Model the fold of this input.
Amino acid sequence: MTNCHCGSGRAFDECCGPYLSGAAVPPTPEALMRSRYSAFATANVAYLGETLLPGTQDDFDAEQVTEWAKNSQWTGLEVRSTADGKDANEAYVEFVAKFIMDGKELIHHETGRFQKQDGRWWYVDGIMGQRPRTVVKVGRNDPCTCGSGKKYKKCCGA
Done:
């Protein structure tokens, strides 16, 4: 039994293997992201293309991805967080993929965006690093966020 590349601690055949072979579909965005990491580790570029949201595959450069996957030694995956998006059909997974390329230890830190369509999760795109957080600014004359019923400027903002 070989441990799965994604770092789950489970055997490859019981973890990402069925997804990469097409025998099963990842049930969650995190499972899809882990299986995509395993696809990089095994240079299964076809799977990487197949798991892109239909309609977003135009800029997928299989040749470049193949070169990156084959010329890298994939050394670990850390899932930092998972979060739901604006609705139940969108989610985000922040992760750090570790690899060695040209003798240098490197990381790929991304927050990937996933979308559920036709009953299955797809990779849409990602941003490097953490997803920006949105903070709602409380105005001086807005009700205080503590729930006192007073204006913010006369309560916690004083």
Summary: The mean pLDDT is 86.
